[in-house]
Amino acid sequence: MNYRIIIKVIGYILMIESLLLLPSFLIELYTGEGNAGAFAITILLTLFLGFLLSRIKKGNSTISIREGLTIVSLSWICISLFGAIPLYLTETTQTLVDGFFEMVSCFTATGATIIPDIESLSYGILFWRSF
After folding, report:
1. Residue 118 CB-density burial (10 A; 0-12 exposed, 13-18 middle, 19+ buried)
2. DSSP 6
3. Would residue 91 be called left, alpha or beta, if left means φ above 0 and alpha means ψ between -120 and 50 degrees?
């Protein structure tokens, strides 16, 4: 298995996720609800890690079925984990595991939530959950 190509693709996916966090960050800046810092930290962390991972030399450029399945599986885990960081930093969820559950639910459009009062969340967090 070509681990280098897997890591490289995961890096690109993380950089894409950092771009997807930008609208929520801009909403938080516009509304001034105080959660823009959590999104800024997450964007910078995700972009930096994604950039580092994408710089790895890929070796063989063909992706087998096995590597493709690994990329998809790890991508779901990574985007949910990094997507949970703003929820945790803004204390929307009590633990990172709760945030991970929330983001898996959001990214898969399951509709399950552990947040008791969704209407009280800031607009940026609501947008991120629904995006």
Report:
1. exposed
2. H
3. left
Q: What is the pLDDT of residues 79-125, one digit of tens each?
A: 999 999 999 999 999 999 999 999 999 999 888 999 998 889 999 99
SS3 content of the chain, % helix, strand, coil (to 5): 75, 0, 25
Q: Which two tokens stand for residue 51?
A: 């950039």
Sign of the dihedral through C-alpha 111, 117, 118, 124: negative
Q: Read off the tokens for 87.
A: 């929820």
Burial class (CB in 10 A: 0-12, 13-18, 19+), 115: middle
Annotated domain spans of the chain: 3-130
For residue 42, count other CB atoms closer than 10 A to its CB: 24
Other beta carbons within 10 angstroms of residue 1's beta carbon come to: 9
Distances, alpha carbon 69 to alpha carbons 2, 14, 125, in Å: 12, 17, 30
CB atoms inside a 10 Å sphere around CB 20: 14
The token duo for 37 is 């810092």
